[in-house]
Amino acid sequence: MIDVDQWREIRRLHRIARLSIRAIARRLGLSRNTVRAALRDPEPPAYDRTQRPSCLDPFQQRIAELVADFPEISAVRVREILQPEGYTGGLTILRDHLRLVRPEPPQVFQRTEYRPGAIGQLDWARMPNPIPSPTGDLLPVWALLLTLGYSRLLRVVFSFGTAMPEFLQAHAQLLQLIGGVPHTLVYDNMSSVVTSHRGKEVAFNPQFLVFAERYGFKPHACTPGQPHEKGLVERPVRYLKNNFWVGRQFSSLEDLQAQGDAWCDNVANVRRHGTLYERPIDRFLREKAALLPLPTAVPLPYDVRFARVTSQGFIQVHSNHYSVPPLLARQNVAVHLYASKIVIYHNQHEVACHARCWGKHRFLQDPAHLAKPWSVAPQPVAVSGAHGLALPAKACVPVAHPDLSRYDRLTTEGGDA
After folding, report:
1. Which homologous superfamily is 119-290 in?
2. What is the C-alpha separation between 38 and 5, in angstroms, rounded?
3. Is 235 helix (H, G, I), strand (E, B) or coil?
4. Domain locations in the chain?
5. pLDDT at 155 exceeding the cut of 80
6. Measured between alpha carbons, how far is 327 from 309 in angstroms, rounded to an integer?
7. Angle subtended by helix axes 32-40 and 21-28, to nearest 10
8. CA-to-CA dists, residue 3 to 38, 43, 213, 349, 413, angstroms
9. Lowest mean pLDDT among 29-33, 67-71, 227-231
10. In this prediction, what percent of the chain has a pLDDT beyond 70?
11. Neighbours of 310 (CB within 10 A)
C-alpha cells in the first residue's frame, strides 16, 4: 500500500510532468496497477490503524517478568526461555520489543574533586532585562561568568556584546579579577571559541587560540548535549539571576559592573558553599598560589574591518556612522573594532578614534573633523614679497620666493660691458 506522499507524487507526475503510467511506475519503483489505482482514486489513501495480532502477544506478561528480574537479559536468552513455552517468532521482533520495554538505566555522575588552580569554567548568560547604554538606548546585556573548580570562586564581567573583541576583553578582565590563570579553562561550544565540534574532533577559533597561548592555559570544549560537563558555571548562572539581578536598578554598564563586583566580594564569595561547606574566598586563599601568573603585557583584542569613507567624511560600522578627517572622503580605511572604542587607520596611520556606540543608526562626530582643511575669504589675499600677485585665501600655502638681486647684478655687469 502506498502512502499519501507517493499518492501525491504519482498524480503530480501524471498531471504536471505528463508521464505515462509505465514511466511513473519505473521512476517510483511501483507496479503499474498501483499507479492506475492511485490515478483513479481522488482521495489520499487512509491508514489502517487496526492492530494486527503478533506472535509476541501471548508472551507479553512473561517477557515483562523476565525483564523485571533481569534488566540486561538479551533477546537470544529470552528466545531460549520462550521456545519451550511455544514461542515460534524470530529475534528481530524480540529485540524491537525489548528496546521498548527495557527500563533505561539511570544516569549516574561521579562527583569530581579538583586540584587547586587546575580548572575553571566560563559561560555567557543573558540577563533578564535591558539597561541604558551611553547613548540612552535600552540594550540587552550579557554576563560572562568564571567559576574556579577548587574554590568555587565566582567572578562576573558584563558586556553589551558577545562577539570576539567583547568576549576576549571580558575574558581578560575576569583573569585580572582573580589575579591568575587556571591551567585548564572549560567552555561551551560558543563560536568565539569553537568553530566545529564533531565527536572528539574539536576545531578552535584561531584568534582565540592566540589569546590562550598568551595566557598559557589549555582550552577544553564541552561535549554538545552534555550540560553536566559545565555544571560548575551552570548553577552560578541561576544564582546570579535570582540572587543578584532581582530587585536592582542599573543606570549604566559601569554601574552594573560596580554592583556586580560588590556582590561577588560581599555575598557570593563569602557565603558558605552548599557543596564544599566552606567559603569560596577561604578556599581561594589556598588556590591562588597554584594559578598560572598573568602575562606582563597583552594587547587589547580587536577585530579588523575595512570601510570606505563617504563624501561627507563618515564610515559605517554596525549601522552607526563615525567621522574621519574630511580630506579622506572616498578613501579606503582600516577599522580596528575594540570592545569599548574604534580606531581608524589610513595608510597605517591613526586618523580617528571614537568611543564604541552600542545604539543603532547614530552619527558620531568628532568636533576636530568639522574644521575644513582650508579657509575661504571673499577677497584675494596679497602674497608678501611678490609685487602685484594675489591669491585666494583657500590657496594660501607657503610659497618659496627666489632672491631676485642676482638679476640686478647681472644687469649691472652687462651695462659695464
Report:
1. Ribonuclease H-like superfamily/Ribonuclease H (3.30.420.10)
2. 11
3. helix
4. 4-40, 57-101, 119-290, 303-369, 374-400
5. yes
6. 10
7. 110
8. 10, 12, 58, 69, 117
9. 227-231
10. 82
11. 14
Nine-digit cell string for 80 = 531460549
State which amino acid sits at residue 339.
Answer: A
- AA letter at 207: Q
Q: Return d(Cα 137, Cα 411) in angstroms, integer.
A: 78
Mean pLDDT of all residues in 182-205: 84
The DSSP string of 336-347 is: EE-SSEEEEEET
- Asked if residue 362 lies in contact with residue 320, where contact means CB atoms within 8 angstroms, the answer is yes
All residues at 6 or more sequence positions from 393 whose CB lies less than 8 Å from its CB, including other chains: 374, 375, 376, 377, 380, 381
- Report the amino acid identity of residue 166: E
- Residue 15: other Cβ atoms inside 10 A: 10
pTM: 0.59
Neighbours of 344 (CB within 10 A): 24
Residue-wise pLDDT for 73-113, tens only, equals 888 888 888 888 888 888 888 888 888 887 665 554 445 67
Strand, helix or coil for residue 206: helix
The three three-digit cell numbers of residue 171, written as one number: 575574558
Amino acid at 345: Y
Eight-class DSSP state of 215:
H
Angle at 214 between CA 213 and CA 220, to 5 degrees: 40
> Residue 116 has which C-alpha cell?
587547586
Backbone angles phi, psi at 272, to 5 degrees: -80, 115
Question: Can you tell me the distance from the alpha carbon of 270 to that of 154, in angstroms, rounded to the nearest whole number?
Answer: 10
Q: What are phi and psi of 250, to 5 degrees?
A: -130, 125
Place of cell 498501483: 34
| Residue 292 DSSP class | B
